[in-house]
Amino acid sequence: MRLIAYILLGLLTLLIQTQLFPFLIHQVWIPNLFLVWIVLIAAMHGRKTGLIMATIAGVIHDTIISNFFGLHIFPYLLVVYVVTVFRIHIYEEQWYISCITVAIATLLDSVIRIAILYAIHADIEIGTYMWHLVFPTIWVNGILAVFIHYLLWRMQEKEKYIW
């Protein structure tokens, strides 16, 4: 049952990320809902589930939304690895832990992406990129993490108490 719920949530996330956010937010940045889901699921369910989700979301993000392959899948996988290394220490029932974890993961994801762009000699102004794209995304992803934390926590509680 949980697998079906996650598949449906993934499809809903894809719809929101590709259709709703660009329609509602007319800025350079948009929240990265894929990253929020990946980080919280990795923190709750461990490395294997997180890496599977990161691979699927990274491939979807790179093929449907991004302009070249690898710009999202590689950072997603590294972020999941880092989150799961510190998983025992970071994830508890408190929503603010999830908010802080997602904010730090968003910053790490952005730094990895900047390193990739720098490595391929992309024309990127790091200060402007951080100020206009990364910092607003950190705040919004952190806020989204509160709501997604509540949803995932409720799903996890129901799983524990089902006979």
Automatic annotation (TrEMBL):
Which chain regions cross the lipid bilayer? 28-46, 67-89, 95-120, 132-153
GO cellular component terms, semicolon-separated: plasma membrane
The UniProt keywords, alphabetically, are: Cell membrane, Cell shape, Membrane, Transmembrane, Transmembrane helix
Which cellular compartments is it found in? Cell membrane
Name of the molecule in the record:
Rod shape-determining protein MreD
From what superkingdom does this record's organism come?
Bacteria
Fetch the InterPro entries from UniProt: Cell_shape_determining_MreD
According to its UniProt entry, this protein's organism is Veillonella montpellierensis DNF00314
* Pfam entry (one): MreD
Family label? Belongs to the MreD family.
Q: Does the keyword Cytoplasm apply?
A: no
Q: Per UniProt, what is the membrane topology? A: Multi-pass membrane protein
Q: List the NCBIfam families hit by this protein, alphabetically.
A: shape_MreD (TIGR03426)
Leader sequence residues: none
Q: Name one GO biological process term.
A: regulation of cell shape
